[in-house]
Specification:
This protein has 71 residues and is mostly helical. The protein contains two helices and no strands. The longest helix has 50 residues.
Length: 71
C-alpha cells in the first residue's frame, strides 16, 4: 500500500510541475513574441526612414549609375 501511495504521489507532483512549467512557457512565449514584434517594427521604421528619402529612391539601375557618376 505504501508503494502505491508513493507512485501516485510522484505522478501527481510530476503532473503539477509539468503543468506549471507549461503555463509559464506559454505566458512568457507570448511576451517574447510581442517584444520581438516591437523590435522588428522599430528596426523597420528606422530602415524606412534611412532608405526612404526621395534622393535615394531609384527606379532602375540606370538612374543609380547616373547618380553615382554625378557624385
Amino acid at each position: 500500500m505504501k508503494q502505491w501511495f508513493k507512485v501516485v504521489s510522484g505522478l501527481l507532483i510530476s503532473l503539477i510541475v509539468v503543468g506549471a512549467v507549461t503555463m509559464l512557457a506559454i505566458k512568457y512565449f507570448d511576451v517574447l513574441v510581442r517584444g520581438f514584434d516591437a523590435l522588428r517594427d522599430q528596426v523597420a521604421r528606422k530602415k524606412a526612414r534611412f532608405f526612404g528619402s526621395e534622393c535615394c529612391d531609384y527606379e532602375d539601375e540606370d538612374e543609380l549609375a547616373e547618380a553615382e557618376e554625378v557624385q
